């Protein structure tokens, strides 16, 4: 594949980073996750909410003293070009990443040189149709530690520890709590519960990333299904008593959770509201819903 590297399109073996790089040594960087969805009936590839993803990428950089060296419009055009160069005609994941480019020892963020890459990848795992998860013993990183409202590279060690613990204990994924014991999110996913036909999801103040898929789901629930959506803190026990629970995220899409800490959620199967939201989301991201075409950037 071709990779975008600081204004150039290079074959992947031609791209390298020094072992002395501060982004590699200290996790000084941020990234974004974008999805491209292939619509076979239209023979078209759609990049979903590309503008919103790159705006969030630039906001992450600003918060972390990582000036993204290109405008949102430049990043959009280069991403479209990268997908075309690679002749993509399938669902793929797109990863823009900006790292502190210096090879010096001191772990500061104030040097002006930042290096930006964009690469494509097939998703390297296929999640189960429905998930068995656990509440992690690891606490979610907090806003005054490593801000989870951004996508900092170093912060995902927290996610890695939670996911690994879950898998070693026989679960598919984890749910992290804040230091106050409130439900936060998954290692790479936002979370919703449904109770009495009402959607609830943790607020940004409970150490979550304000997900773009999360926002899309909230719009679907309110505009398409006439459901109320409430952002509020959730107690751990509310997970167990919910009618339905599901994760949302760029990589995972919308994924029902049918068991938490070995407690059956609802009927033990994907709930009707989750199924309807998931179905409508799939139509939207593939450019099959006229009301949301503004979110879909056609490549070809």
* Distance between the amino and carboxyl termini: 18 Å
| Helix share bin | 25-40%
Q: Enumerate the spans where pLDDT stays under 50 for 5 or more consecutive residues.
A: none
* Main structural class: alpha+beta
Listing every helix as H and every strand as E from the N terminus to the C terminus, the arrangement reads EEHEEEHHEEEHEEEEHEHEEEHE
**Rg, alpha carbons:** 19 Å
- Our estimate of the beta-strand percent is 25-35%
The name of the CATH topology of the largest domain is D-amino Acid Aminotransferase, Chain A, domain 2
Total count of helical runs of at least 4 residues: 7
Molecular structure report:
This protein is an alpha+beta fold and 300 residues long. It folds into two domains: 2-121, 2-Layer Sandwich (D-amino Acid Aminotransferase, Chain A, domain 1); 131-285, D-amino Acid Aminotransferase, Chain A, domain 2 (Alpha-Beta Barrel). Helices cover 26% and strands 30% of the residues. The chain contains seven helices and 17 strands. The protein has helices spanning 22-26, 50-63, 72-85, 156-168, 212-224, 236-240, 272-285, and strands at residues 2-5, 8-11, 29-31, 34-39, 44-48, 92-100, 114-121, 131-139, 173-177, 183-185, 190-195, 198-201, 228-231, 244-249, 253-260, 263-264, 296-298. Strands 8, 9, 10, 11, 12, 13, 14, 15 and 16 form a nine-stranded mixed β-sheet that branches. Helix 2 (50-63) packs across helix 3. The protein starts with a strand and ends with a strand. The mean pLDDT is 96.
């Amino acid at each position: 594949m071709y990779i975008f590297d600081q204004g150039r399109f290079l074959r992947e073996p031609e791209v390298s980073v020094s072992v002395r790089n501060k982004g590699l040594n200290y996790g000084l960087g941020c990234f974004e996750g974008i999805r491209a969805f292939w619509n076979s009936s239209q023979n078209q590839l759609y990049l979903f909410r590309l503008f919103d993803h790159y705006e969030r990428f630039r906001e992450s950089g600003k918060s972390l003293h990582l000036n993204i060296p290109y405008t949102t419009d430049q990043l959009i055009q280069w991403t479209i070009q990268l997908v075309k160069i690679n002749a993509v005609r399938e669902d793929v994941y797109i990863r823009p990443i900006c790292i502190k480019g210096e090879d010096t020892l001191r772990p500061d963020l104030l040097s002006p040189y930042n290096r930006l890459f964009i690469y494509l990848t097939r998703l390297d795992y296929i999640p189960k149709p429905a998930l068995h998860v656990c509440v992690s013993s690891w606490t979610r990183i907090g806003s005054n530690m490593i801000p989870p409202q951004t996508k900092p590279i170093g912060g995902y060690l927290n996610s890695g520890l939670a996911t690994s613990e879950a898998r070693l204990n026989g679960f598919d994924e984890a749910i992290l709590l804040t230091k106050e014991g409130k439900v936060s999110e998954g290692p790479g996913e936002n979370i919703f519960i449904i109770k009495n036909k009402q959607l609830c999801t943790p607020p940004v103040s409970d150490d979550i990333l304000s997900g773009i898929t999360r926002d899309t789901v909230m719009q679907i629930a309110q505009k398409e299904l006439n459901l109320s959506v409430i952002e509020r803190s959730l107690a751990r026990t509310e997970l167990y008593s919910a009618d339905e629970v599901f994760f949302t995220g760029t990589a995972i899409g919308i994924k029902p959770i049918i068991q938490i800490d070995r407690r059956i959620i609802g009927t033990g199967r994907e709930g009707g509201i989750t199924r309807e939201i998931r179905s409508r989301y799939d139509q939207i991201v593939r450019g099959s819903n006229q009301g949301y075409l503004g979110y879909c950037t056609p490549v070809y």
